[in-house]
Write a structure and sequence with these properties.
Helix content is 0%, strand content 52%. With 124 residues, the chain is mainly beta. Strands 2, 4, 5, 6, 9, 10 and 11 form a seven-stranded mixed beta sheet that branches. Strands 1-3-8-7 form a four-stranded antiparallel beta sheet, with no helix packed on it. The radius of gyration is 13 Å and the shape is globular. The termini are far apart. The model has no long low-confidence stretch (mean pLDDT 96).
């Protein structure tokens, strides 16, 4: 199972750090990722990371502001979100494992496990 946490209410320009802790099994040898869903919109890709942490991919809308990372020893991965904007407001979901990791998230598959989601609200 995956458990996402760290969401909250923040002003525009602020920062939040999301965490996704895995339990019951290890995902240390798998790619992982974050997606988000805003009200009235479809779920969209945010960021993904390879098992070793060296390969990372981001949606254009968050590139340069968000950083995905992982700690395999803790079976946990993170999403550091800086310079937050009101349009970042959404429920954020973590997922694993991701197969087909690369620059095109439409080619990702697997993603059998999803966290419950954590709400991020950015006020203007």
């Amino acid at each position: 199972q995956l458990q996402a946490s760290g969401g909250g209410l923040v002003q525009a320009g602020g920062s939040l750090r999301l965490s996704c802790a895995a339990s019951g099994r290890t995902f240390s040898t798998y790619a992982l990722g974050w997606f988000r869903q805003a009200p009235g919109k479809e779920r969209e890709f945010v960021a993904s990371i390879g098992w070793g942490g060296r390969r990372t991919y981001y949606a254009d809308s968050v590139k340069g502001r968000f950083t995905i990372s992982r700690d395999n020893a803790k079976n946990t991965f993170y999403l550091q979100m800086n310079s937050l904007k009101p349009e970042d407001t959404a429920v954020y979901y973590c997922t694993a494992p991701i197969y087909g990791l690369g620059t095109d998230p439409s080619k990702y598959y697997g993603m059998d496990y999803w966290g419950k989601g954590t709400q991020v609200t950015v006020s203007s």
